[in-house]
Amino acid sequence: MMLQMRLKTVLEYAGLSQAELARGVGLSTAAINLLVNRSKYPKSPERQKLQGDVVEWLSSKGVKEEQLEGCFEPAEFRSRQTPGRCNALCPINQLLQEKELTPMLLRKQSLKPQAKQHFQLTRDPFADPRSSEDLFLSAEIRYVRESLYQATTFGIFLAVVGESGSGKSTIRKELHERLRNDSQTLIVIEPYVLGMEERESQGRPLRAADICASILHGVAPEKRLPQSSEARFRAVHEALRESYRMGNRHVLIIEESHSLPNSTLRHLKRFFELEEGFARLLSVVIIGQTELGERLSERNPALREVVQRMELVRLPPLGENLSAYLKHRFGLAGKSIDDVVDAGGIEALRTRLQGQNQHKGHYSMLYPLAVHNLLTAAINAAAEVGADRVDADIVMGV
C-alpha cells in the first residue's frame, strides 16, 4: 500500500493546491493527486526531473529550503482498525480510512488518445449505445423497459424516475427502436421541452394548451388548433377518436417531467382519461429525475388524484450489477474488463460512489454516467503513470 508523501503537508502549509502544482509542473491534476496521495510517479518526466521541477516551483512560491527537506518521503501514517467486508479486498479497508464515505462525482470525462493506446482500446467502452443489443439489461432495467412498452400497448399512465445519468434517455431511445419494429401502428407524441421550467420566473412552463397543440400536430396535422379552451380540447378528443378508429394507438411521452407544474400534472390525468368506449385513446408516460418521484408521493395532497391513477417505476443504481455492467460495456469495445481494471479497482469504484448520511442512511450514486466519468478519469490517470491496470490506489486517487 502506497502512502502519502510529506509533500501534501508542505502544500497545505503553504496554502497551495494540488491543481496549482499540476499546472506549475505541466502535469494533470490526477497525476499530481496520485503522486501526493499514493507516491505513484507518472511515466514522464523522469522521477529525478519531476522532483526537481516540483522543488523549483515550490521555491518560486516562497517555500523555504528547510521546509522542502524530505518532502518526497512517505508521511507518517497510523491506521485505525476497521471491520473488513467479506467481499472486499484488503487494500480497500485501508483506503476507506483515508477517504470519507461520501459519493464523489466528476464532471464529464473523455478518454484520452494516450489512454486508448496504452490499454489498446479501439472503441470507447462508455460510448452511447448504438442499438438495442448494446443495452445492459439487469432484472431491474428489464422491468422498467417492459413497463414502458406495456404503457404504449394497453393505455397506462406511467412515471419513470431516476437520477441524472441513470439511463432514462437510453431506455426511451430503446423504446423508439422497439416500436419501429412493432407491427401495430403507434403515434408517438413528444412535446418539446427546451426551456421548460416549473415556474414562470425560471422559464416557460409546459401547459395543457401546449400538449393539445402537440397531440393535434401528431395525430391530425392538417387541422387548425382552435383558440378557445373548450373547442381546443374537443378538437383533440375528436382527432384521437378518428385516429383510433383508423387502427392507431397513441402515446404521449414527456421528458424532464420534474419541471412540469402541478397544474399540468393534474391535466395529464384528464388527457389520459379520454376514451372511446372502454378503450383509452392516449397512453401517458412522463420521465424525470428523483424530484418527480418525491412530488408524486402519496403524502402530496396537491397531486392526490394523479398519484392514485399512475404507476411509478424507478431506475435503481447498479449496486451488485456493477461488475456485470462493466464486463458488458468493455465487451462491446472488444476488451476484457480484467485487462483494464483489477478487482480492487472495481471495489474502489463502489466505495467512491456510495456513502452513509446521518439523515438518509446508506445512499448510492452507482449510476452509469457517474461510473463512466470516474472510471474514465482513472483510466486516463493509469495511462499517465504507466500502470498495467487500474487499481484501487488509482481510483481512490483521482
Give an overview of the whole structure.
- With 398 residues, this protein is of the alpha/beta class.
- The protein has 3 domains: 1-78, 434 Repressor (Amino-terminal Domain) (Orthogonal Bundle), CATH 1.10.260; 82-138 and 318-398, no CATH class; 168-308, Rossmann fold, CATH 3.40.50.300.
- The chain has 18 helices and 9 strands.
- Helix 10 packs parallel to helix 11 (229-245).
- It is elongated, with a radius of gyration of 27 Å.
- The two termini are 16 Å apart.
Radius of gyration: 27 Å
SS content category: alpha/beta
CATH homologous superfamily title of the largest domain? P-loop containing nucleotide triphosphate hydrolases
User: Oligomeric state of the chains?
Assistant: single chain
Give the low-pLDDT segments.
77-102
Mean pLDDT: 85
CATH topology of the largest domain: Rossmann fold
Largest sheet geometry = 5 strands, parallel
Give a count of the beta strands, DSSP E runs of length 2 or more: 9
**Helix and strand string, N-terminal first?**
HHHHHHHHEHEHHEHEEEHHEHHEEHH
- Strand residues, percent: 5-15%
Spatially, the strands of the biggest sheet line up as 2-3-6-1-7
* Share of helix, binned: 40-55%
Broad shape: elongated
CATH C-level name of the largest domain: Alpha Beta
Distance between the termini: 16 Å
Per CATH, the architecture of the largest domain is: 3-Layer(aba) Sandwich
| Number of separate helices | 18
Q: How many individual domains?
A: 3
